[in-house]
Amino acid sequence: MRGPDERGLLPRVATFRVQLADRRGDAPPILVVRLPELERVAWRRGLRAARAVERSAAAAFSTAVQRVLRADDLVAHDAGSDVFVAALVAPTREGAPPVAVDVRSALARIAATMASVTRLEVRTGWTTLDAGLRDATTDAIVEAALERGAQERQRYAFFSSLGHELRTPLASIRGYLETLLDDRVDDATRGRFVRIAHAESMRLARLVDGMFEISLLDLTERAPSCAAGRVSDALRAAVDACAAEATERAIGVAADEPDDLWVALDGDRLTLVLVNLIGNAVKHGRRGGAVFVDVSGPAARTVRISIDDDGPGIPPDERHRVFGFGERGGTHASGAGIGLALVRLIVERAGGRVDLDPSPLGGARFVVTLPSA
């Protein structure tokens, strides 16, 4: 490892580039770690505090790369910079060049070490020093690596959300079919469960056909103006989809029977939004408690849907981040931290908004406001 010198200083980036230039025939992966909050530390606490944090980060980076990388790999950092770089120039134990999974694994371990030491946000990325970047500036290489890292995280979040949302109707269908296998179910209940399972299977098929329309490539665009969904139909479907889990936790779900209200969001995605919010309330509400869904509108050409639970609620300092991908509240309930992120993306894409407030029941209140159709 061409790491710190006897003074504990990492090689400078200029030296790093010279060492890479000596390997013209290679196209090694370049790993980049950035601490974007370092500048904020300097503004708020002064340059001395920022330098202390930078030294801690450099020490953590040095420790991590010595554990993770190989002896011939290259590392660098310029004093006063928030960027740390490495080049995987050494072959693996099998003698082959590093592959993407090796790069991502090494980058994750380095970033985790630095985040645990500095307690700051760590942004990561990687790129390959191929012909297109061989003569590029260091800043261009760093930006290319970070952009690739951001794109990979977006793709991961999207496909995670896709799997999460497909599991919801699958779990509902499975629950109803398992109940139907019980011979003690009466004919009326059997017919109702078959209809629900069929409706969920149709919704699953439509989700498979349409989920990619809400990929992160076009989430900033508004939904088609011709889209429209009936609130009562979506609400009924959502309550049915959450019924199995609500029964398991002995939670009653009381929902309005709204008038003939339509919103500027198609029925499947409106159902998806309500399934996530009602399911979230059931999951985090008090066992044996209740969930209330209230619908009002149209007022000022909008329809307002609120979902209240009687759980522990969400602390004020967590309310701003529960809509982020991978973020979860502080309860012990399971979850991937994806459903609420997708709710906000779908609602905002339709020109609406979703708010989080404390509920009069003591738990959380999610309020969805959508344009009326």
Structural commentary:
- The model is unreliable at 216-221 and 326-336 (pLDDT under 50).
- The chain has 10 helices and 11 strands.
- 37% of the residues are buried.
- The strands form 3 sheets. A 5-stranded mixed sheet has the order 6-8-9-11-10, with helices on one face.
- It is an alpha+beta fold.
- It is elongated, with a radius of gyration of 26 Å.
- It folds into 2 domains: 13-136, Alpha-Beta Plaits (2-Layer Sandwich); 155-371, Histidine kinase-like ATPase, C-terminal domain (Heat Shock Protein 90).
- Strand 10 and strand 11 form a beta hairpin.
- Helix 6 packs across helix 8 (231-248) and helix 8 (231-248) runs parallel beside helix 9.
Summarize the helices and strands and which ones pair or pack:
Elements: H1 13-21, E1 29-34, H2 38-45, H3 47-68, E2 74-76, E3 83-87, H4 100-118, E4 123-128, H5 131-134, H6 138-180, H7 187-210, E5 229-230, H8 231-248, E6 252-255, E7 262-263, H9 267-284, E8 290-299, E9 302-309, H10 339-349, E10 353-358, E11 364-371
Parallel strand pairs: 6-8
Antiparallel strand pairs: 1-3, 1-4, 2-3, 5-7, 8-9, 9-11, 10-11
Helix pairs in contact: 2-3, 3-4, 6-7, 6-8, 8-9, 9-10
